[in-house]
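User: Can you help me understand a structure? I only have the sequence.
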Amino acid sequence: MNNVPIEKHRLSGMFGFTLVWAGQIVSVLASNMSGFALTIWAFQKSGGSATVLGIVEVCFLIPFLIVSPFAGAMVDRYNRKLMMMISDLGAVLATAAILILNATDVLQIWHFCVASAIYGISGTFQWPAYMAAITTMIPKEQYGRANGMMSLIDSGPAIFSPMLAGMLLPIIGLTGILTIDVITFFLAIGALLFVHIPQPQQTEEGKEGKGNLLQEAIYGFKYIFARRSLLNLLLVILCLNLTGGLAQSLTAPMILTRTGNNSAALGAVESAFAIGGVAGGLIVSVWGGFKKKRLRGMLIGWGMSGLLGFICFGLGRSLYAWIPVAALAAMGFPLAQSASNAIWQSKVAPDVQGRVFAARRFIAWLIDPIMPVLAGALADYVTEPAMTTSTSFLSGTFSWLTGTEPGSGMALQYVFAGILYLIVILVGLNIPSVRNVETILPDYEQPKEMLTESE
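Assistant: Let's start by predicting it. Here is the structure, written out as tokens:
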């Protein structure tokens, strides 16, 4: 009689990781289609308000941040594959609710806000679980490649989702797109059923972090604060998110305003961002990123975002400028993100990665809940009125940069955000503990028996 646990006969290693990754690609493609269609719906429903779109985003971020530390502790405490499934299940329930409300013609913006909150809570489990699973499924030499593949989940489906949503919306409507989204969630969950995700072996840090759920959640923060190099690196990222937040949520309203609510133009720009992200992700997936001096990859990626993704994008006034700039800027994101993830996966003890990664994201996103509303309100009540009024200081000083037509105020916010973004990068480079983060802390090694290609 075979006494080997059934789980051990499932796929593991890089092949198992690739299967899970493929399920997520399909699911995220459909989710991005829903997100695109719902963004258009909310923008039109609200009469073209950037503030409303910002509020919807905040409804995602606040629950995400509140629950995140506890979700990270649960990822370390319980089976990580189960946590991934719970994340997907929560998201599919929220999408199904929006589907029913829209099909019965009672969908309102506040419903979308509630669903966004559920998406946020579900997402708290997904990211730390997937990041920690990489550590136990594959050897550290493959971290850069795996993280490059994970970046394709963010950018790959986004190439086709705006175009597909734009084509399908007039044919099957929002209800049809949401139906597709619900179906694909079960494909992602099904892929997990065939994969074995090893649990990490206990380390001294894991023993130190034992306690009740609150104590284990707090330990993620204590771990980071006890390691100055990781903390300072994280504070630099927090500052980048702060400066970038002055503009990032304005992409859709700026493009729609400057093109007369042309959803096809918005779709083209979003697809350009996605194509650039896919190109960058493919390069990192094949190349594997910097094996040493990974910080170099982060700095190159950040620089491309600041210069191209903010300053040059804000200066553009048509698709002829936005599309190439968006594609080039997005190529830097996978390089920066995969390098950042690989540093954290190498330097953090595997059995506490769930709570540490959750704490990491909590700190990095600490300011994010107010930034979409702040950026939207700044556009609606300050920069947009000022740039379209010929007698204002902003219009008189900066009209040569972004023009004075509708959308120019939001464009100016992009330019200012990019300048501040580059300043933060330069300051970060001059902090020794950040510059030397890869040599200050040792790497953690996974036992070789946990990293076999199949079991």
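Now, to help you interpret it: The chain is about 80% helix and 0% strand. The chain has one domain: 6-195+214-450. Let me know which part you'd like to focus on.
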